[in-house]
Amino acid sequence: MLDSHRRSTSMSRLSDHVDWQYVFREYWHLYRFGSAGGNRVIRSHLKDVRNRLNAELEINPEVTFDQPNSLPVCAWLGRAMDQGLNERTAPLVRSLARVIDQLTWRYGYERMRKGLARKYAYAELMGPNGPVVSKKLILGLVLFAPRCTYPEHSHDGISESYICLSGSVSDSNYSVFTPGSLLFNPPKRAHRMTTGDFEPTLLAYAWTGDEDKLAHQKMDFSIKK
């Protein structure tokens, strides 16, 4: 999806990067002990993420760093991290703090909607675009500024979950999620997110699906029928 923008500065294996190992250990912990709320579909998704992550960690995946990149919304990142340290998701936030300066923040869209470019960005941690390379699982972070509206969209062949690390986010005007909460979107489910008035929102996300879908998912705001 973003291979044309890759500017590799180093290539190694995950075993060479202790701080990154702990990041994924904390991801696994959230997806193992986080609640599915009694929902079998969500419980199955949580297990799928864990199993895919276990499989990737066992093969000691390649690590290929891009040049770190900051976008306007990253002005809120320090506040989002500080707030996350006060929440039950703090173990992951502390681990992320050790690698945050190595992240490449992106938009992922060829055309950004007016105003969104200053209020949104994502950073992939594991996936086809690295830095920890995987064809079977995408893990990453999404950062929203306060008063952000992330327009309605859906994903073709991708099951998506978010775990709120700090701040708050509403899902399609139906529910509000705070730190520790999980949002789940099955393939093709249209969803729209908004954030609170005063604090930024930091989300950890996971995408699962077929290798081809993970590698070639087109990111736009059109709804897949």
Automatic annotation (TrEMBL):
A GO molecular function term, named singly, is: dimethylpropiothetin dethiomethylase activity
The protein's matches in InterPro entries, at most eight in alphabetical order, are given as: DMSP_lyase (IPR031723), RmlC-like_jellyroll (IPR014710), RmlC_Cupin_sf (IPR011051)
**Name of the protein in its database record:** Dimethlysulfonioproprionate lyase DddL
